[in-house]
Specification:
CATH class of the largest domain: Mainly Alpha
Radius of gyration: 25 Å
Shape: globular
Distance between the termini: 53 Å
Number of helices: 14
Structural class: alpha+beta
CATH topology of the largest domain: Glycosyltransferase
Number of strands: 22
Strand content: 15-25%
C-alpha cells in the first residue's frame, strides 16, 4: 500500500457533511496485530470462499439467466441472494483500495460483467422479479427485497467510486438509482421496502456522485415508513418492518434488528445531508434507550429468535440471545455515523465492544466458517453443522461454512476490509485540527489535515496488552492536536506526552500540538481482568457475573473444565479476583454438589430452600468470547452463577 498525501482521502464508507471526517483506507496501514491478522485472513481466504459458494449454489448464475432470457422455473437462492454478490463487491472494492491485488481486480471485472448483462434497459436490476416466468416487479414490497438488493448495489458503487472512480459498476448503479427515483418518487409509487437498505445506498451514492435527487428519494422512503403500508406477515406485527411508528416519533429500536439498524443509519445519512436536526435527535434518542436497555454485554443486539429482533426493555436472556452478526455490523454503521455527527466518545466505545465481541467472533480463524447468531450461553455442544453443505439453521454452536440465508459472511467481509475507516477521524471544528484515534491497532497513519499531514507510527499489542505507543514521524509546522480515546472501563489509565504526564480519565484525552519529529506519546490502559455485574432488571442474568479483560468479553468453555465437571455445575467465587492469563483470565470456581434424592424431580422441587450445595474449588481459564468453539463443539457461558 502506498500513501497518497497530496489529497484528503475519500476511500471510506461514510462522507458526511460537518466538521468531522473519518480517515480513508489510504491513510492507515495495519502492521499485524489483532485486526491486521483478521484483515489479511479476510483478503486471503474469505473473499474467495464467498465467491466459491455463490458460484456453487447458482446465485451468480442467476444473473446469467436473466441476461440469456432463460428465467423461470426453479431459481437458486432466496429472493435477496443478489445482495450477497453486491456486499462481496463492496468488500473487494475496499480490499483493492488498501493494496494492489490483481486477483481481486480480475474478480471485480468478471462479476461486474455478469451483473451488467442482467440490467434492463430502464435501469431495473433484479434476478428474482420482472422477467419471464417470474412475478412482476415490485409485486411484493413486504418480502420481495428488490429495493434492499438495489441498496446494496449502490453501496458497492459508493465503495468503487471512492476508491477507483467511476467505472462500469458505478454506471450500473446510476441507472438503477435513476430507475428507483422515477418509480418511487413523489409522483410515483408510494411504497417502501420491507427491509430497509435502499435509504443507505441512495443517500451515500448521492453524496459520492453529487446527486441531490438520490438523497431526496432516501428522505421520501424514511418519511413513508411507520404508516402501516406494508402487507403483514403471519404472526408478526408491523414493528417487524419498523412500519408501526414514524422514524421521527420512535424512542427505541424494535422489530427485526438488522432492519431497524439499517433504517437508523439511513435516517442519519439523510439527517446530516439535509441539516435535519429533528431526525438526527430522533436516532440519538433511539440509540440511547436501546443501548441502555436492549443491548448485550458483547454489543450484540436482538434477543428474539422468532423475528430476529429486539425484545422488550431488559429482555436479554443469555442462552436465547440471537445477536445476529449482521446486526452487529449494522450497529457499528449507526454508531459511526453518530460519532461523526456528535463527536461523543460513547459511540466509539460501543463500536469497539461490538467489533471485538460480535464481528470478530463470527469468522473462524481460517476465515472460512462463520457464526450467524451469537448467544452468550450454549447449553448443548453444537453438532448439526454440515461442513460441506448449506446449513439451514442460524444457530448451532459451531461455525458453519455457509447458510441457507448467508448474509453474515459477506457483511463480515466488507466490514473487515474497511476496518481502518472506523479507526480515526479528523475534527476541524476548533481553532486547530484535531486527529482523534478512536480504535487502537499497530500500524502507521498518514492523516491529511488542512495544515498538512500528520504521520504517526503506532506500536501496540492491544488488546492483549494495554500499552499504546505513538511516535510522531512527521508533523505540520502549524499546530495539530491529537486526541486519544480512553475507554469507559479504563479507570486508572495513564497518558504521557512529550512534556510529561497528562490528565487521563475515561473519555477523550487531548495531547496539544505542535508536534516535532520524534515526539512520543504513550497511553497505558488497565487490561487486568474485571468483574461486570448485570443490571438487576435483566431477570435472565440475575445472580450471575461476567468477566471482562480490556475490551474483550471472556467466557467459560467446557473444554477448559476438568473431566466430569459440567458448565452448569460450577459457580464463580467472587471473593477470589480473576488473574490475568495470556489474553484471558484464571478464575476460582466452586463445583456444585447435587443433593441426594433430587434425581427425577422437576428442577424447582430439587432444592426448595436453596440451590445445590457447593463443594470443591477448582481453577479454570476463561477465554475471549471471540475464540469460543475454535477447539470444537463445546458448551459455553459468559455470565457465571455467583458462589
Amino acid at each position: 500500500m502506498t500513501f497518497d498525501t497530496t489529497r484528503t482521502a475519500v476511500a471510506r464508507p461514510v462522507v458526511a457533511p460537518g466538521p468531522r471526517r473519518g480517515i480513508g483506507l489510504d491513510e492507515m496501514r495495519l502492521d499485524g496485530g489483532f485486526w491486521g491478522v483478521h484483515q489479511e485472513t479476510n483478503a486471503r481466504a474469505t473473499l474467495r470462499h464467498c465467491v466459491d459458494w455463490m458460484e456453487r449454489l447458482g446465485w451468480l448464475a442467476n444473473f446469467d439467466r436473466v441476461a440469456r432470457g432463460s428465467t423461470g422455473g426453479e431459481r437458486p437462492g432466496w429472493q435477496f441472494s443478489d445482495s450477497e454478490v453486491y456486499k462481496l463487491l463492496e468488500a473487494v472494492a475496499w480490499q483493492t483500495a488498501r493494496e494492489p491485488d490483481p486477483a481481486a481486480e480480475e474478480l471485480w471485472d468478471a462479476l461486474v460483467e455478469r451483473i451488467a448483462a442482467a440490467q434492463d434497459d430502464d435501469g431495473y436490476l433484479n434476478t428474482c422479479f420482472g422477467h419471464g416466468g417470474q412475478r412482476p416487479r415490485y409485486s411484493d414490497l413486504s418480502e420481495g427485497h428488490e429495493l434492499y438488493c438495489t441498496g446494496h448495489l449502490l453501496q458497492a458503487a459508493v465503495a468503487r467510486v471512492r476508491t477507483r472512480g467511476e467505472d462500469e459498476l458505478v454506471r450500473i448503479a446510476r441507472r438503477a438509482a435513476d430507475h428507483v427515483c422515477r418509480e418511487f418518487g413523489a409522483n410515483g409509487r408510494q411504497g417502501i421496502c420491507g427491509h430497509p437498505e435502499i435509504e443507505l445506498g441512495l443517500a451515500e451514492l448521492g453524496r459520492a456522485l453529487d446527486e441531490p435527487a438520490y438523497i431526496e428519494q432516501a428522505r421520501l422512503f424514511i418519511e413513508r415508513r411507520g404508516r402501516g403500508s406494508l402487507a403483514p406477515i403471519a404472526l408478526l406485527s408491523p414493528a417487524y418492518f419498523q412500519d408501526d411508528i414514524p422514524v421521527r416519533e420512535a424512542d427505541r429500536w424494535r422489530g427485526h434488528a438488522v432492519r431497524a439498524l439499517y433504517l437508523a443509519a439511513g435516517a442519519l445519512d439523510v439527517a446530516t445531508s439535509m441539516g435535519d436536526d429533528e431526525l438526527l435527535h430522533a436516532v440519538e434518542r433511539q440509540w440511547t434507550r436501546s443501548v441502555e436497555r436492549r443491548t448485550y454485554l458483547t454489543g450484540g443486539m436482538g434477543s428474539r429468535h422468532q423475528d430476529e429482533g429486539f425484545g422488550d426493555d431488559w429482555e436479554l436472556p443469555p442462552d436465547r440471545a440471537y445477536c445476529e452478526t449482521c446486526a452487529g455490523v449494522a450497529s457499528i454503521m449507526v454508531s459511526w455515523r453518530l460519532l461523526l455527527a456528535k463527536g461523543e466518545v460513547k459511540y466509539a466505545d460501543l463500536i469497539e465492544r461490538t467489533m471485538y465481541n460480535v464481528v470478530a467472533t463470527s469468522p473462524r480463524a481460517d476465515g472460512r466458517a462463520f457464526f450467524y447468531a451469537n448467544p452468550l450461553h450454549q447449553r448443548e455442544p453444537g453438532g448439526d453443522v454440515r461442513p460441506d453443505e448449506v446449513n439451514p439453521r442460524a444457530e448451532g454452536g459451531i461455525r458453519a461454512p455457509w447458510f441457507d440465508v448467508s448474509c453474515c459472511p459477506t457483511n463480515v467481509a466488507r466490514t473487515l476490509a474497511s476496518w481502518q475507516s472506523y479507526a480515526a477521524f479528523v475534527d476541524d471544528a476548533g481553532e486547530e485540527p484535531v486527529v482523534t484515534i478512536a480504535q487502537y491497532a499497530a500500524g502507521e497513519m498518514h492523516v491529511a489535515t488542512d495544515r498538512g499531514t500528520l504521520v504517526l507510527d503506532i506500536a501496540t499489542a492491544y488488546p492483549d496488552e494495554g500499552s499504546v505507543r505513538i511516535r510522531v514521524r512527521e508533523a505540520p509546522a502549524d499546530p495539530v492536536a491529537l486526541r486519544l480515546r480512553v475507554p469507559h472501563w479504563a479507570d486508572g489509565a495513564t497518558l504521557r506526552g512529550p512534556d510529561g504526564d497528562l490528565p487521563c480519565a475515561p473519555g477523550w484525552a487531548d495531547v496539544a500540538g505542535p508536534f516535532a519529529t520524534g515526539d512520543e506519546i504513550e497511553l497505558t490502559l488497565p487490561v487486568a481482568p474485571r468483574l461486570t455485574w448485570p443490571d438487576p432488571r435483566v431477570d435472565a442474568a440475575r445472580g450471575t457475573v461476567a468477566v471482562e479483560r480490556g475490551p474483550l468479553v471472556l467466557c467459560l468453555e467446557s473444554v477448559d473444565l476438568p473431566d466430569g465437571v459440567a458448565i452448569d455445575g460450577v459457580a464463580l467465587d467472587v471473593a477470589e479476583s480473576p488473574r490475568g492469563s495470556g489474553d484471558g483470565a484464571v478464575v476460582r470456581l466452586r463445583v456444585r454438589q447435587p443433593k441426594d434424592g433430587a434425581e427425577g424431580r422437576p428442577p424447582f422441587l430439587a432444592s426448595p430452600a436453596h440451590p445445590d450445595g457447593l463443594g470443591r474449588e477448582i481453577d479454570a481459564t476463561v477465554i475471549p468470547y471471540h475464540r469460543w468453539a475454535e477447539r470444537g463443539a463445546s458448551t459455553m457461558r459468559v455470565f457465571l452463577p455467583v458462589a
